[in-house]
């Protein structure tokens, strides 16, 4: 996992997002911590919030990488045909 050197880097990213984008991320973070998900994080604590943010970010990166790999495989299949 790549680490951001300074919190300002993530702050700049967030500041550049649309309100709709921020609302979408916030909803995903809330959904991750619903009682029915089996999550044991205490998002009122710094550690619980950090765990939530780290898990969310990791899932986003993994999904994006999987989509990119799928698109690359499709492009290769089309090229080979």
Notes on the protein architecture:
By secondary structure, the chain is mainly alpha-helical. The chain has one domain. Helices cover 72% and strands 0% of the residues. The chain has three helices and no strands. The radius of gyration is 17 Å and the shape is extended. The mean pLDDT is 90.
Q: What's the structural blueprint in terms of helices and strands?
A:
Elements: H1 7-15, H2 19-32, H3 46-80
Shape by Cα distribution: extended
Number of strands: 0
Task: Give the oligomeric state.
Answer: single chain
- Spatial separation of the terminal alpha carbons: 36 Å
- The secondary-structure class comes to mainly alpha
> How many domains make up the 3D coordinates?
1
Helical content band = over 70%
Average residue-wise pLDDT: 90
Q: How is the biggest beta sheet arranged?
A: none
Order of helices and strands: HHH
Poorly predicted runs are: none
Total count of helical runs of at least 4 residues: 3
| Cα-based radius of gyration, to the nearest Å | 17 Å
Strand content: under 5%
List keywords for this structure.
81 residues; mainly alpha; 3 helices
Brief summary of the model shown:
By secondary structure, the chain is mostly helical.
